[in-house]
Amino acid sequence: MPLRTAEIAPASPPSGRVRCLDGLRGLAACSVVAFHFFYAFVPAPFTDWNRSGFGLWDTPIAVLWNGHFAVAIFFVLSGFVLAASAPRGAREAPAMIGLRYLRLALPALVSSALAWAWLMSFPDAAREVQALTGSPWFRWTYQPPFPPFTQALWEGGIGAFLDGTTRFNNPLWTMQAEFFGSILIYGSYAVLPGRARPLAMAFAGLALGALGQFSLAAFCGGALVFEGRHILRDHARAGCVLGLFGLVLGATYPGHAADGGVVSYLQSWLGRDGVRQVGAVLVLVALLITPAARRLFETAPLQRLGELSFPLYLVHVPLIVAPACALYARFGPLDPLALAGLFVATFLAALALAGVFLVAVERPVLAGLKAVRARLRARPASA
């Protein structure tokens, strides 16, 4: 099942970049990789919607593999960064929305083409693993006969934005939410005066949540945090409490059976849409007011993961459904140790491919769009 709630593509960074957010994005991307890998090869825990008792899935530790919560984090981060880079007026908004589309669509198109190539190279791998594991996750991946290459280009560059889904590289479903969230933030900021924005974001977030549009509500939550950043003060204890509460709300896995008791009833709602997005907003606030956490997320390794986060998000599923599945089909079913080894190998391969994608696609796209944006903003000044 593709994740149903993210930001994955960071907007153009504002001046005075909040570097700890890059580290948070990097860890969230790793959580998505773990989610998709284990959902493919060990699906039972991800499909049991009536768990009983209490286990690791009911604790914040589940943040390590809860891809749904990771995507909520991405959308909240997008709202924050989009608000920071919002257009300076209504005349500028259309161009910035167009550039935002290109920022999302160009890497997505390349990743869809890459996914097509991987699927064509290992045409039966995903189907064979689905027969072995029974994972429903493979329903969101094309099986032979595959559509033509032109269809992969269409779905990556346009179709995913129109339909909110694609079966070449299923994480691209988030591109529609990303683009609509960009229109929401850029459009509203272009016409609203600064003093009206916090109230507007709060109202829009509540209204969208009431309508079940939780992904877009998460963008409003991130923008609201940006608008309130001036009142945030460092407070380690409050940050720890907020962060833990946010993880309990959003990172614990949904599906716990409500057997009549109050505790079980509350557990059955933790980690669901709406609650998950609230948890993601609280985690963002907690990070911003906790100095030790900020320093941790600003360390070089996490900053590197942050830089790789969008490429990693775009390239990891093709590796899972093609070469990783081919290995599992050849040697599976695997014992836990062998499966852990396959995960490590797949994760390292995804990091390596993400590094290539960063250099060959991500950085050139960002550099080109930055140059276009600078030219557009300089034009009125020279008129």
Automatic annotation (TrEMBL):
GO terms for molecular function: acyltransferase activity, transferring groups other than amino-acyl groups. It holds the Pfam family Acyl_transf_3. InterPro entries: Acyl_transf_3_dom, Acyltransferase_3. Residues 20-354 form the Acyltransferase domain. The chain crosses the membrane at residues 24-42, 62-83, 104-122, 199-226, 238-258, 278-297, 309-331, 337-361. Coiled coil: none annotated. Keywords: Acyltransferase, Membrane, Transferase, Transmembrane, Transmembrane helix. PANTHER family: ACETYLTRANSFERASE, PUTATIVE (AFU_ORTHOLOGUE AFUA_4G08520)-RELATED. This is Acyltransferase.
